[in-house]
Amino acid sequence: MKLSTMIHQVNKFALCSAVIAVSMTLLTSCFGGKSGGRSGDRSTATGWLYNDPTYGGYEYTSGYEQETGPGLVFIEGGTFIMGRVEQDVMFSNNATPRRATVTSFYMDQYEVSNANYREWLYWINKVFRENRFVYQDALPDTLVWRRPLAYNEPYVENYFRHPAYADYPVVGVNWEQANKYCSWRTDRVNENILYQKGIIELTVNDQNERDNFNTEAYLCGQVEVTDGEKPMEDLGNEGQTRRVRRDDGILLPKYELPTEAQWEFAALGLIGNTNDERMTDRRIYPWNSHVVRNPEDADRGRMMANFVRGNGDYMGTAGNLNDKGDVTVPVDSYWPNDYGLYCMAGNVNEWVRDVYRPLTFDDADELNPFRGNEFKHLVVDETGVPVEKDSIGHLREEYDKADNIVNRWNYRDAYAINYLDGDSHTNSVLGGDWSTSNAGTDDMYGGIPQAVEGGGDEFRSQDATKNLGNLITDRMRVYKGGGWRDRAYWLSPGTRRWLDQKESRDDIGFRCAMVRVGSPESNGRSQEK
Q1: Beta strand pairing status for 240-242 and 232-234?
Q2: Residues contacting residue 443 through CB under 8 Å, at least 6 positions apart
Q3: Closest Cα to residue 458, out of 415, 381, 397, 412?
Q4: Is 380 helix (H, G, I), strand (E, B) or coil?
């Protein structure tokens, strides 16, 4: 045999051996060697393999990145001056400028439209055929358009239902209805995520009355579902399937109304006005400049938002309708701010979650300031398992009292985990850093209205006798942004007004937000389908 041929065969054998060695290494790392696990990740505490049935099946997810829910835009948080306005022309002294920090979150790119809201009503009408009060309670008040000396009946009859206004912001919705919409949206989005991933079968047409998909009830085992084509494998019980848990990171956090701080931070959109950590320009409105007309050559002179320019001038002159809106305009009108959000000034005011107090800025926290906390816990039986859900399919909750805090009954995740693991202990933790004295029974929990049973559902009962002579109560909620009936002053994100949570108007709508879990920075991943 020639020397060159021998060298060639030796090199060929060496190459094959190297390929085999690399292949075995890859197989070992992917499947945990002889154990047959799905991951080579080992515990830094014990050295045991994660995600491996042979080693007990403990499941661990690394590198989690929150998906962006439908309709949302990522808002990277930071510090800003909250409450700043050009001049307190109302002399209300209720927006004292102060520095605060808002952690990253998500917010709707657009205001909730009539079409969005009608989708909720359609679902209610389909599911709650017996409990008609659920549908009636969700209907917007179309009579908000009526004025004693104006002909607005066409809006009463057409604005909410007619397809011409489908993409216009919903109005006539009070604060309570807006919150219920957010809750419904959370459940529909999470249900769709489970369906799109093949974890459950489609259940839309099977839902009836209290037997509908609710995220928290599903986590606690009180929603019946059928496995889809790709159900969750229970690695702790090989060959078995299980329902999704919170620690899988598959289900999204709640859609909810933004806090006042979140809304104001997102509206200002100062992410476009920073260089390293230096703020290059402050803003009065959600755009640069102290004027309300577009300075760019292509759109020079066009109004930046839908508002009233002066007495009796709602849309400009015929032949040159400047803001092109007699009342509201479609939710994707005008130019987005630097976060990509539309109509954060003008069009309609927007509900936020906060209770109104004139001096909130004087005593709110510097991190995620918010007024309106109502601490609750799940109602559980003697074994720590949540009691049967209510008539609309939601888990029952109660307001926290001092004794609940002492025993850590407000630890929500314990119930879901204990229930699904078959563990009956109550997870009570006595003593520690929560004692009766430092729970603050007088300050934090004194005077909280009791939950009242009505129509199968729990709701708050306001004791009006405690607030006689005082127009500012816990029912007064903040709204911001300015609307189509407002002057330019109210377009500044720092301005704030309030209205009773059961009242509604023709110039107040809303949009939803969602907390960001994990890193405050996003890698830009979108919602997976």
Answers
A1: antiparallel
A2: none
A3: 397
A4: strand
The residues facing 378 across adjacent strands are 397
Per-residue confidence (pLDDT) for residue 242, from 0 to 100? 93
Phi and psi dihedrals of 278, rounded to 5?
-100, 130
pLDDT tens-digit profile of 11-31? 444 444 444 443 433 333 333
DSSP E strand boundaries for 68-152:
72-75, 78-82, 98-102, 105-108
- pTM value is 0.82
Q: State the chain's maximal CA–CA distance in angstroms.
A: 110
Q: Which helix H or strand E contains 479, and what residues bound it?
A: strand 476-480
- Per residue in 188-213, pLDDT (tens digit) is 999 999 999 999 998 778 899 999 99
- Asked if 241 contacts 277 with a C-beta cutoff of 8 angstroms, the reply is no
Structural contact between residues 313 and 488, judged by C-beta atoms closer than 8 angstroms: no
What CA–CA distance (Å, rounded) separates 476 from 379?
28
For the CA atoms of the chain, what is the radius of gyration? Answer: 28
Cβ pair 143, 125 in contact under 8 A: no
In whole angstroms, what is the distance from residue 138 CA to residue 119 CA? 12
Q: Backbone phi, then psi, for 50, in 5-degree steps?
A: -80, 160
Instruction: Give per-residue pLDDT as tens, 478-508.
Output: 999 999 999 999 999 999 999 999 999 999 9
Helices 175-196 and 114-127 meet at what angle, rounded to 10?
Answer: 80
CA distance 13 to 36: 29
